[in-house]
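Q: How do we represent a protein-ligand complex in a form that can be generated token by token?
A: Start from the inputs.
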Amino acid sequence: MLTLTDVGKRYPTGDRALTDIQLTLPKGQVMALIGPSGAGKSTLIRCVNRLVEPTQGSIRLEDIELTKLSGNRLRHARRSMGMIFQEYALVDRLTVMENVLSGQLGYVGFWRSFLRRYPQDAVAEAFRLLERVGLPHAIDKRADALSGGQRQRVGIARALLQSPKLLLVDEPTASLDPKTSRQIMRLIRELCAERELAAIINIHDVALARQFADRIVGLRAGEIVFDGQPSELTSEILTTIYGEEDWDTTPEPADDEETDEQEKEREAHRYQSGRDLRRLASLADGGVR
Ligand SMILES: Nc1ncnc2c1ncn2[C@@H]1O[C@H](COP(=O)(O)OP(=O)(O)OP(=O)(O)O)[C@@H](O)[C@H]1O
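Then emit the structure tokens for the protein with adenosine-5'-triphosphate bound:
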């Protein structure tokens, strides 16, 4: 569903960030993009949604050639690509719900978004998504009152609100502790499976990539030097991607299965969501507050 052919990027500074990238991503596949700092991971993700202009090659999303689009057609195509950011990119002074609804930007138009008037079905879907990402109890909280993991859950719900076909995920766990990182990766993986969403996840943590991706692509100096299954990522290949290191002493990640207590807590949150939903029912009238 996403095909990159001969994609290259040279920045105006002369830095060659990508060379001859060939990549085909089928529907529903979760692909981790790994590689050392400066390898071109962010550039690749940003070329796909045209935040960065590729200087060479073709990028097709289904039957649309993305590199040729501009104006309204580009805006329209971008709606089918949800972006999840490292630093969450939430508006701190807005509530969780308002932040999620801002995922409708590009659908409802600037002034309606500015005045915080969203269609009723978008509000209803935002409620559903916040429930799904485990935040029904936090709908009316300000974004700056949330933990890092919760902020990332809001970012995920916001990306999903635009019903994307593809998720572009840039270092989703960079600011999170190891356990929360795994929970966030698990959530992204589950959501991709539920919605048959393809995802490209730029990630530094190789253990997380191995555990949660269907496929791993290794970039080095702007070129793909590995493309295979997590089980094929040997120490030799890691050395090809990152350079010499004693990979075999990398510790196994700790088990973080949910305890009964955590499960009960989640149940309680879910129950409480009914109250939150009623309190916030006025949202459905078209005004967020
Ligand atoms: N805006 C820019 N202008 C000029 N050069 C850039 C720009 N952005 C990135 N580069 C260069 O392009 C190359 C790839 O950078 P990129 O940020 O894509 O790598 P990365 O793999 O995402 O790195 P990191 O893991 O540190 O985020 C680097 O040499 C970088 O210096």
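Residues 265-289 have pLDDT under 50 and may be disordered. The chain is about 35% helix and 20% strand.
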